[in-house]
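User: For my dataset I need records formatted as: sequence, then C-alpha cells, nothing else. Please produce one.
Assistant:
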Amino acid sequence: MKTSFVRQVVFPILAALIWGTAFVAQSVCADRMPPFAFNALRSFIALVFLFPLSRLLDAVSVRRGETPPKTDRRSWLIGGICCGLILATAANLQQAGIADTSAGKAGFITAFYVVLVPVFGIFLHRHTSPQIWVSVLLAVVGLWLLCIRAGEGFSLLPADIFLILCAISYAVQIYCIDHFVQKVDGVKLACGQFLWTGIFSAILSLIFEDASWWPNLAACLLPVLYVGIFSSGIAYTLQILAQKGSNPTVVTLLFSLESVFSVLAGAVLLGDRLTGREYLGCVLMLIAVVLAQVPLTGRQARTR
C-alpha cells in the first residue's frame, strides 16, 4: 500500500513540481536557442543521465537476489519510437510557444491535456461522464480568456496555437505510455523515448535551423542541464513509473499541478504578471482539470 501511494501520488506531484519550475528554464533559453536544438540537447542529456541509472538499478536488483525486469526488445524499440515521436512533437511545439508568452500562461495552456485525456478515452471505448463535458466547456472558456485578447475576435496568437497543439500531443503521449509501460521497464522505456526524441529533434534542427545559437550555449548551460536532467530525465521517468498499473485519467490530476507551479515559478523567478482576464482563465482551467478527475460516486459511479 505504501509503495503504491508513493508511486501513484508522490511521484506525480514531484513530476508536476519539476515540470512547473522547468517552464522558467525553458523560457530563459527560448530567446537564445531554437526549439529543435534545445529539445535535442535536453533529450540527449536525459539519456546520458538515465542510461547509467538503468544499469545501476539492474545491478542493485541482482545484488538483492532479484531478477531485473525483462524488456522485450521489439516492444522497447516500438515504444521508444512511438513515445519519442509524440514527445518530440509536444516538446518542440511547447518550446516554440514559450518563446512568445509567459511561463505561467504556457503552463496553464499546456495543462489542457489533463482534460483531453479522459475525452480521448472515448475512442478507447471508455465511459465519459457529463462532468467531463462540463470540464471541457470550462477549459475552453479558460483558454478563450487566456488566448484571445479583448477586441480581437477569434484571432489566436501563433504561440497560443503551438501550445494548444502541444496539449493535444501530451494527451496522446499519456495513452502511448499507458500502453507500452505494461510491456517495458519504466526506466528503459524512458531511455528509448529520449533517444528517439533527441534523434527526431536533431534531424529537424539540422534541416530547419542554423548554428548561430552556439555562442549562446554558455548562457543557457545551467537551464538546459536542469531541464535535461530534472524535467526530462527525472520527471518523465516519474511519469512513466506513476502510470504503470494506474488509471491515466486519475494520475493526471496530480500532473495538473504543473500549471500552478509554473505560474508561481514565473512570478517568483521571472517577475511575470498576468492580466486579470488571464488570471480568471487560469482559475477556470484549474477548475476544469480538477473536475475532470473527480471520481464519480453513487448511481453515476455504478453506471461506468
